[in-house]
Predict the 3D structure of the following.
Amino acid sequence: MDKTLSGDTPTKCGYITLIGAPNAGKSTLLNHLVGAKIAIVTPKVQTTRARVTAIAIEDQTQMIFVDTPGIFTPSRRLEKAMVNAAWVGAKDADQVALLIDVVKGITKDVERIIDGLEKSDQKAHVILNKIDLIKRDRLLGLTEKLSTYDIFDKIFMVSALTGDGVPELRAELARELPEGPWLYPEDQLALAPMRSLAAEITREKLFLRMNQELPYSLTVETENWEERKDGSVKIDQVIYVSRENHKPMILGKGGQTIKKIGAMAREDLEESLGQRVHLFLFVKVREKWIDDPERYREMGLEFPKD
Ligand SMILES: Nc1nc2c(ncn2[C@@H]2O[C@H](COP(=O)(O)OP(=O)(O)OP(=O)(O)O)[C@@H](O)[C@H]2O)c(=O)[nH]1
Ligand SMILES: [Mg+2]
């Protein structure tokens, strides 16, 4: 039987999708669940733009975690694509877990997500996140309110930041996955190609350094990846901005800002890749990139018609 890895215990495998309002801590939790930095994390909302898959093994179980963009009421085309990607991730999963930031509680966004789950008759676990920020007794009211909904299965309490409660959460989620063969090789950690992960790292640094609307109106693509004989790699990336006046903001005085962003991204890339990295960043103005289907394809998003 190809179902057993060793002994008589059958293998298990399944998809677990993390959904929630923007900034709930989904990407932080994904990284903690798999023990590696796969998804980018920033204090800003709408950091994640497309589904990010990361894989963990718990005993005989292969857990395929799917991080999703935050769900909110979208208006721009890109926002619509992001929210749609989150719902598709939920639809395709063996288990759905709704993350709630306990400081914010059940906000309008959370209510809308619950509504969406109810309408599609989708069961979900609740993960109360950021418990490091409040006193435990304040969680009681929240759990009582949540237990009145039929769609919710279990309620977990974690801190994705400190890791408190994460091993227990992982073990419990693994227990519930269906029997079946592993879908990916044992040592595979992420699904996205390295050039996409590398573009995300640079986007994270841009999100961290740039203010206001700017992070939301740019996108990053890896254009060239060249392994060199000396064991290093040369990576060229393009930062697309939508307006001419955004370009000098990213470059900074005498190119200082982009230099710092490049240095921060390079440091992370070298750590992830375990090799020396020569990173070259270019800024290009592409006014209508937000209406260009090709940019969505690059991001792993479906292009919404309107
Ligand atoms: N104190 C605390 N902060 C947390 C915790 N989990 C996440 N954060 C912080 O919350 C912010 C948002 O975290 P992300 O993981 O990017 O949140 P997200 O849900 O993926 O956000 P989007 O991708 O924008 O939807 C970051 O500043 C994290 O460091 C937690 O358990 N405790
Ligand atoms: Mg995220």
Observations:
- Residues 194-299 form a domain with the GMP Synthetase; Chain A, domain 3 fold (CATH 3.30.300.20).
- The mean pLDDT is 95.
